[in-house]
Amino acid sequence: MSVEADLVYEVENAAFAGTILGDHLPRDSFLAELDEVINHHALSFMLNGVTGRVMRCDATSAEAYAKGNVISVNVAGASRYVIVHELAHVLHGRTGRQGASHGAHWRAWYVWLTEVLYGGGYGDVLAQDFAVEGGLKVADISFPHVDGPLIEIDGSLVRNE
Ligand SMILES: [Zn+2]
What we know:
- It is built from six helices and five strands.
- It is mainly α.
- α1 (3-16) crosses α6 (122-134), α4 crosses α5 (104-118) and α5 runs antiparallel to α6 (122-134).
- It binds zinc ion (ZN).
């Protein structure tokens, strides 16, 4: 893994710890929520054809990954933010894959999707932590207008400082 990717993992993990986005979802819940996201009518114009599945083999090194239009999750599940992280890879890929795979353009997708999907200011938190904690830029690109948050979750929105 690149230094940039490692920094991204560190920042996202710290940014979402103790929040609904940091919650670990068991495999079935993860896939159910992923399903809700990728089939949401508000995102269908850009997520058409994306599917989720469980990794068949041993997947100890990654919680989930996106390749092509498939988001695969470890048999043990993953934190909720991993849904957003992997979707950002899909959309970054579909829109020309500018820059590195965890680079500034990808991070812009990640930040935008976080707010669109879950709201609560989490997109801003993530962008700020990328900049302040990781020294990582978020590209300034314009996104389609989508009224969020699209996914309603009960639970604490308080950060664990
Ligand atoms: Zn990634």
